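Write out this protein's structure.
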Amino acid sequence: MRTLIGLAVLTAVAGCATALHVERPPGYTAPNKLVSCRADLPGDWKEQLSRTRTEAGSHEQVSVVAANGAADTTLVQTTRNRTTELVLRDHGRRQQVMAVQDGAQLFGVEFDGRWVTFATTPDPGSHDVTVHAWDAREDGAPVRVSGSGVPVLHNGKAAWSDSGEVHLFDLAKKRDTVVGEGKAPAFFGDLLVWTHEGKFRAAGTDRGAAAVPEPLTRATPGEHVASDGRTLAWTQDDTLFAWRAGWPQPRRLAEIESVPKTEGIVFPRVSGDFVSWRSESSYVTDIRSGATMHTTEDDYWLEVHGGALTQRGRNVTASAPLSSLSALRAC
């Protein structure tokens, strides 16, 4: 029987971010649930990932948890001997960002090429979340940003929802502004977009008033919203949607079976032409073709982070530049 290892994930509960454990083997795969276009794992994706494949020891966990846009600078999280360490790797240079010990958890890592944000809790069951920011240019100690809302990050600004309020925080100026009520904020162009009562709301990243783009006014987003600044993606029941400026209306990217009811489509991440998401196992959708990759091969839990496709398995981690990957073929 495989050893179950808890994977740190985030969920929104009453407007607060809470750390949860999902007891699932990191090599776990579930049967395909897609009712939209499906593609197999391309051979060139596997070949590119094999170039950076790292085998971890039997008593340690190693994962690439963030990357810059070029995928040549990564953040790697390692847990061994009851210590979890977050390290920046940049062209052979290694910088420790933070380490926590014993039962403390470190999760929610984001990286915009300069700033790193992440959250910690003192133990797996704790709702006492502390969010930190670290400036890679200064190489100093991480500083506390907020007490409970786990942020998204883009171009030196962080945003989070806490107790039903959406915060916009300038990391360099250390300036926090409440821009509205709601949850699930995401940076999209020069806007900060979030959801409130099943609709999108928006403010300018300069903290000024802003209107929601007209094609988004008819959308009814669910719990999960993500963006890389250019593409906005969101879940709606068992369907994944996306929109870019210039598109006349949102596009339906992927859809899963609605019966039997499971966790649905959760935790989307956007980078360039790809959206990764989860529904019991991992999926990657190509925005260009509308095809979604799903594999039942062991050790291929795939996500996009910055400019990288990351792989996580039982004792395996790897990453590959998204720019090196072939497009998924349309059905």
